[in-house]
Amino acid sequence: MRVIVMSVVLSLCATAALAADASCKQTATEKKLAGAALTSFMTKCQKDAHTSCDTAAHEKKLNGAAKTSFTKKCVKDATGA
What we know:
The termini are far apart. The longest helix is centred in the middle third of the chain and has 25 residues, at about 35-60. The protein has four helices and no strands. The protein has helices at about 1-20, 25-30, 35-60, 65-80.
């Protein structure tokens, strides 16, 4: 039970942090990343965004096309794509 509570709390924190932070592209620009560093940063940022958005969709109890649509838009907004 404690594990479930901790995972929910962490997912809420990640969702809030993702919503409050600048997009991945903005952050990469601010850090002046290029080449392999940019590719690595964007890959990790997109993976983190996808995980966070999946968690948010699960919390909203979305399934099927609604989940897919929500996740796609959420990741797009988070990455700045």
